[in-house]
Design a protein that fits this description.
Number of helices of chain A: 7
Distance between the termini of chain A: 17 Å
Strand order of the largest sheet of chain A: 1-2
Largest sheet of chain A: 2 strands, antiparallel
CATH superfamily of chain A: Ferritin, core subunit, four-helix bundle
Number of strands of chain A: 2
CATH class of chain A: Mainly Alpha
Oligomer: homodimer
Mean pLDDT of chain A: 91
Shape of chain A: globular
CATH architecture of chain A: Up-down Bundle
Order of helices and strands of chain A: EEHHHHHHH
């Protein structure tokens, strides 16, 4: 696992990602670059949607919109960048069936506040951390130079994004509760990827 | 009415706004600058939400995300700018009861496609046009220099925004249908403001 996906807490390092991505996923992804690119566009669009949804849900939470609005703008910038590569390659955005990953994570968010807020931050952070890990792999293994450059550029800010979600959680919640919820949700996240989804997706 | 809120179509000019904003509204707004500022922050946030919602609903529509994503980013930039003035004046974002304006317009959007898409563009354009008209008034009449500058800056891009919605509609729909729907919705928009909402809001 890339060390940069682990915030340092006191003397120890908190792990976002329990399992590394498999070689099978890398092979599936680099063999289907256009489908991964299309799915990646959707991921950036959805990430902006998640940030905006949290801004809407917790509209009166001081200091929340101040960091989530710039994050949403950055996700939209990434979305536009991926979309322009798709367009340049003769493709438009089109619907794509989602892998079960996102809905498995969403189902594990606690329904009751204030833990719902904590879990929402952590799930958003976990998805950012996994995206960062996989973009790192694509930036190394993709045989397509333009795509390698794209992923290398984007992953710099993706690393900042899970830091944003970590900070939002850490500023508002007891550290022990935070770590216990992160451990539980990180387990769900890694388990959701154990059986690889057959269609090539960022979160297959 | 400010001429810049009227796209020129052939030899004639299409009117977005049927009625001018009253002096009563100007007086209400400049007497309650903080409440208007707070409501304005919400308007920018919601405008970004509308653009994103249309991107989600019409995800496979070629050329739509390409213009709505940068528009959403610009709305978020405006939101952050208003929020930073609020913060500098010791205020946080907080919930504010909405005036009936938005829901009256939403109720008048046709439920069936493809007219639902056309109406959605036109309603978004009408709200942008009204915001532009009112920001113009605030940039002239506000006694607060910082706020005058804020509104003067923001309204430049607001003018572009209703142009974006006009173009999205004009590229996809028959001109006669477009003009007939715009006339009907513009009537709803102006009527919604005839009786002034008692609380100071951008769309009181």
């Amino acid at each position: 696992m890339d060390n940069s996906t682990s915030p340092i807490v006191g003397q120890s390092k908190i792990r976002w990602l329990i399992n590394k991505t498999s070689e099978d996923w890398i092979n599936l992804a680099i063999s289907n670059p256009m489908e991964i690119l299309l799915d990646h566009a959707h991921c950036e669009r959805k990430a902006a949607g998640v940030a905006l949804q949290l801004m809407f849900r917790y509209v009166s939470e001081p200091g929340l919109s101040e960091v989530l609005s710039p994050l949403a703008r950055e996700e939209l910038e990434h979305f536009e960048r991926v979309l322009s590569i798709l367009n340049a390659r003769g493709r438009h955005l089109q619907k794509l069936a989602s892998p079960p990953y996102g809905s498995i994570l969403a189902k594990n968010i606690c329904k009751d506040e204030p833990i719902r807020m904590l879990d929402s931050f952590l799930v958003a952070g976990l998805i950012e951390a996994r995206s960062h890990e996989r973009m790192t792999l694509l930036s190394i293994h993709s045989p397509d130079l333009e795509l390698r450059d794209l992923y290398a550029d984007l992953l710099k800010s993706e690393a900042r994004h899970f830091g944003v979600y970590w900070k939002l959680a850490d500023e508002r919640f007891d550290r022990n509760i935070l770590i216990s919820r992160l451990e539980a949700l990180a387990r769900v996240e890694s388990d959701a990827l154990v059986e690889m989804h057959k269609e090539p997706r960022m979160h297959s």
